[in-house]
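task queued by scheduler; priority normal; single chain, no ligands, no partner chains; default sampling; output format set to C-alpha coordinates
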Amino acid sequence: MEAPIGNSRETETALHRGYGVRGDGIADDRAALQSAIDGSSEMLFIPEGNYKIGGTLRLPSGKWLKLHDRAVVSLADGAGTCEDVFLVANADPRGGNEAIRIEGGVWDGNNRTNKRGGESQKSKREMFSFPVCWQKTPCE
Protein backbone atom coordinates (compact mmCIF):
# COMPACT_ATOMS: atom_id res chain seq x y z
CA MET A 1 0.00 0.00 0.00
CA GLU A 2 1.39 3.38 -0.93
CA ALA A 3 1.44 5.83 1.97
CA PRO A 4 -0.98 8.73 1.74
CA ILE A 5 -0.06 12.03 0.21
CA GLY A 6 -1.88 15.29 0.80
CA ASN A 7 -3.80 16.60 3.77
CA SER A 8 -7.39 15.43 3.36
CA ARG A 9 -9.55 13.40 5.74
CA GLU A 10 -8.98 10.44 3.37
CA THR A 11 -5.24 10.77 3.95
CA GLU A 12 -5.70 10.65 7.70
CA THR A 13 -7.91 7.58 7.46
CA ALA A 14 -5.47 5.79 5.14
CA LEU A 15 -2.48 6.55 7.38
CA HIS A 16 -4.27 5.33 10.49
CA ARG A 17 -5.96 2.27 8.99
CA GLY A 18 -3.39 1.29 6.38
CA TYR A 19 -0.35 1.38 8.64
CA GLY A 20 -1.84 1.14 12.13
CA VAL A 21 -0.74 4.63 13.17
CA ARG A 22 -2.83 5.69 16.18
CA GLY A 23 -1.71 9.24 16.97
CA ASP A 24 -3.29 9.01 20.42
CA GLY A 25 -0.19 9.88 22.50
CA ILE A 26 -0.38 6.50 24.25
CA ALA A 27 0.54 3.82 21.70
CA ASP A 28 4.09 3.63 20.34
CA ASP A 29 3.68 4.73 16.71
CA ARG A 30 7.33 4.35 15.67
CA ALA A 31 7.01 1.06 13.76
CA ALA A 32 3.77 2.12 12.04
CA LEU A 33 5.17 5.54 11.08
CA GLN A 34 8.39 3.93 9.82
CA SER A 35 6.32 1.56 7.65
CA ALA A 36 4.43 4.55 6.23
CA ILE A 37 7.73 6.38 5.58
CA ASP A 38 9.21 3.33 3.87
CA GLY A 39 6.03 2.71 1.85
CA SER A 40 5.50 6.25 0.63
CA SER A 41 6.79 7.92 -2.48
CA GLU A 42 8.46 11.32 -2.11
CA MET A 43 6.07 13.04 0.33
CA LEU A 44 4.23 11.72 3.38
CA PHE A 45 1.66 13.87 5.16
CA ILE A 46 1.14 13.21 8.87
CA PRO A 47 -2.21 14.54 10.12
CA GLU A 48 -3.04 16.19 13.44
CA GLY A 49 -2.41 13.90 16.41
CA ASN A 50 0.02 13.01 19.18
CA TYR A 51 2.54 10.47 17.93
CA LYS A 52 4.69 8.83 20.58
CA ILE A 53 7.76 7.08 19.20
CA GLY A 54 9.94 4.62 21.09
CA GLY A 55 12.95 5.03 18.79
CA THR A 56 14.43 6.90 15.87
CA LEU A 57 12.50 7.46 12.64
CA ARG A 58 14.86 6.89 9.66
CA LEU A 59 14.42 8.95 6.48
CA PRO A 60 15.93 7.87 3.14
CA SER A 61 17.14 10.21 0.41
CA GLY A 62 14.47 12.24 -1.34
CA LYS A 63 11.92 11.95 1.48
CA TRP A 64 9.64 14.82 2.47
CA LEU A 65 7.78 14.57 5.76
CA LYS A 66 5.01 17.15 5.96
CA LEU A 67 3.24 17.33 9.29
CA HIS A 68 0.03 19.10 10.21
CA ASP A 69 0.77 22.13 12.41
CA ARG A 70 -0.91 20.31 15.33
CA ALA A 71 0.87 17.00 14.80
CA VAL A 72 3.14 16.34 17.80
CA VAL A 73 5.90 13.72 17.58
CA SER A 74 7.40 12.96 20.99
CA LEU A 75 10.10 10.58 22.13
CA ALA A 76 8.53 8.01 24.49
CA ASP A 77 9.47 7.90 28.17
CA GLY A 78 12.77 6.08 28.57
CA ALA A 79 13.41 5.75 24.81
CA GLY A 80 16.40 8.10 24.82
CA THR A 81 18.73 5.79 26.71
CA CYS A 82 21.87 6.62 24.76
CA GLU A 83 23.30 9.34 22.56
CA ASP A 84 22.39 7.41 19.39
CA VAL A 85 18.61 7.80 19.87
CA PHE A 86 17.05 10.71 17.96
CA LEU A 87 13.55 11.71 16.93
CA VAL A 88 14.64 11.63 13.28
CA ALA A 89 17.84 10.61 11.50
CA ASN A 90 18.87 9.65 7.99
CA ALA A 91 18.35 6.04 6.94
CA ASP A 92 22.00 5.55 6.00
CA PRO A 93 24.04 7.06 8.87
CA ARG A 94 27.37 5.80 7.49
CA GLY A 95 26.99 6.70 3.82
CA GLY A 96 24.63 9.62 4.25
CA ASN A 97 21.43 10.63 2.52
CA GLU A 98 20.41 13.73 0.58
CA ALA A 99 17.36 15.86 -0.22
CA ILE A 100 15.53 15.15 3.06
CA ARG A 101 12.85 17.70 3.96
CA ILE A 102 10.86 17.98 7.20
CA GLU A 103 8.10 20.56 7.44
CA GLY A 104 5.61 21.44 10.17
CA GLY A 105 4.54 19.73 13.35
CA VAL A 106 6.02 19.86 16.82
CA TRP A 107 9.02 17.64 17.58
CA ASP A 108 9.42 16.98 21.32
CA GLY A 109 12.35 15.03 22.73
CA ASN A 110 12.38 16.80 26.09
CA ASN A 111 11.22 14.03 28.35
CA ARG A 112 12.63 13.79 31.89
CA THR A 113 13.32 10.08 31.55
CA ASN A 114 15.24 10.53 28.28
CA LYS A 115 18.69 11.19 29.62
CA ARG A 116 20.35 10.39 26.30
CA GLY A 117 23.73 9.43 27.67
CA GLY A 118 23.69 11.11 31.08
CA GLU A 119 25.06 14.43 32.28
CA SER A 120 28.45 13.94 30.60
CA GLN A 121 26.73 13.85 27.21
CA LYS A 122 24.85 17.19 27.47
CA SER A 123 26.53 18.60 24.38
CA LYS A 124 25.35 15.60 22.33
CA ARG A 125 21.60 15.85 23.04
CA GLU A 126 20.46 16.78 19.55
CA MET A 127 17.11 15.39 18.51
CA PHE A 128 17.86 15.25 14.76
CA SER A 129 20.90 13.60 13.20
CA PHE A 130 21.78 14.00 9.53
CA PRO A 131 25.53 13.42 9.06
CA VAL A 132 26.86 14.51 5.69
CA CYS A 133 29.42 12.52 3.74
CA TRP A 134 31.07 14.10 0.74
CA GLN A 135 33.18 11.11 -0.21
CA LYS A 136 32.15 7.78 -1.66
CA THR A 137 33.60 5.84 1.27
CA PRO A 138 31.50 5.47 4.45
CA CYS A 139 31.89 8.08 7.21
CA GLU A 140 34.20 7.11 10.02
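post-processing summary
- The longest strand covers residues 24-28.
- The chain is about 15% helix and 25% strand.
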